């Protein structure tokens, strides 16, 4: 199959808008797509920008309860709040057209997953996707419908036997984990700030899957102020071995970039360059383990100028095998647009850490006095034996 990348995009996705002042501002998407265009990432012949339309209720109810989908319709059409289902809260206020906007995100991710699974695309990316907090029966954490979970359910229905979901958002990927908690066909790996100090309060190292799926959930719960070097050490210590042991047929990954030090909704300190490096690792794992089948999603990220567009354009470039050198200049036209529209001085480079972030691999040894090392070890000790990975050297 010739190499190709599908990008799910339509300006209709900008209608996912909780209103003025809400952190999940659609300008995140507009600036990302504008920067991608200026960087030439949407104009190549092997890149296909696709509008997948809107997910049907039948598609949504492969994960979500029918009563919840009906409640979203009611909220969307009539403004009917349902606080028991998370509709009308501070995180998820109701807005006109809520159902349609959220269903478009789902359709985009599901369409990409099916295209990659069927071999019509090598990789896929949906910057509007990654709504990982939505639960089967309710909205949560800015997420109405869980596009990643619906896409994974679609892959299983299409015949996939093992799907790996990787989540590097600062917040635990709780909704996807919950949807497949007792399904041994799905591995969820989430690297996030500890639930002891950050929403949603879940994702502990000892959370390793339900009775029928022990080892299907891998959670790395990091302390506040974890640095780029420490974060990379944690990802490297857990992700490759877990994915290789599970041997998925396709990877779906969520690249929420709210782990950055400039993000106001988390307490981590992870540079653009480190997040770019992890995207490269995920891409490499997809080629190593599952024939390149990879679907990448956006997610959280609220530093809407300095971080989000840069990180997601790096992910998109990696998916296209057109890696952007970190010290490449940010296009002047994009910076001028940001200055004119937002009165903000945008970054000059596609990097904020001089291009590279080093780290010390886990294999060098465990330091019991280091909080990040203790978090890594807790995850490896809890989850790895269930995946058949030897942790006898973790002392």
Automatic annotation (TrEMBL):
GO terms for molecular function: histone deacetylase activity. Residues 22-317 form the Histone deacetylase domain. InterPro entries: AcuC, HDACs, His_deacetylse_dom, His_deacetylse_dom_sf, Ureohydrolase_dom_sf. Belongs to the histone deacetylase family. Pfam families: Hist_deacetyl. Keywords: Acetoin catabolism. Pathway: Ketone degradation; acetoin degradation. PANTHER family: HISTONE DEACETYLASE HDAC1, HISTONE DEACETYLASE HDAC1-RELATED. One of its GO terms (biological process) is epigenetic regulation of gene expression. This is Acetoin utilization protein AcuC.
